[in-house]
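step: validate -> pass
step: tokenize input -> pass
step: predict -> running
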Amino acid sequence: MELTAELTLYLLGILALLGLWLFHQFQVRSGRIQAIDVFDRSVARFYLYVMPNDRPFCAACAQAQGRVFLPWHVGKIGFSPLDSPCSGSIPCQGQMIGLYGGWLEARQLVTRLQQASKKNPVRLTSAEILALAKGAWSKSVSADTDRISMHLLEGWCFGQTEPAVAIEGLRYVIDRAKEERHLPYVVPAFLRLMDLLLRAGRDDEARVVIEQFEARFPSDRHDVDGPSFTQRKVLQQMKSLLWETRSLKVSA
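step: predict -> pass
step: emit ->
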């Protein structure tokens, strides 16, 4: 009898563990939690779509500003953070940034995102985006993982209030982004850096950055993470603005 009772307890324990595993699988498939190793901080736990805080943007991009997505959502075929295409005459500089998020503000966002319903997706205000960017990320467990992404976020968030921080952050991304997951950030970082330098009147530095861009991404080469047709159009607009500015200075 004692052996039978003990065996029954073991079986009940196994069934309980199986039930927990099935519940976990259901939660993963529904996107409520992510199936990742707790010691693996090399993956993004969420993605933030952000617009430069010092530039105008179209209505479609304004609607997407601050939206936050789980990785399974971003990985869907045909995914776009926008409900409708960008309608700006000059394409808006919206950027999707992936983060692990080990600091307080990011952890709170992950919890909020996991608890959100599909009908009420998470969207951060400008103040919340700034709070995320100014959080103590460099002292968190995900500092090394998030360093490139956070410097990119600085480039998008601090153009108006802390342009020196934004510019240095973008230079860091351009120089240090080597991992495959970071390579898509390089072209946007280049274009954003050109924009900030030109508007700050730092024409010589902008010219050097344009030359670096063209040396790294020749027009006759088409890399997976190289500039798109639209991004090359933006580059041409930057070059035109630079030559126009220099001409005005010469004529003055």
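step: describe -> The two ends are 102 Å apart (CA to CA).
step: cleanup -> pass
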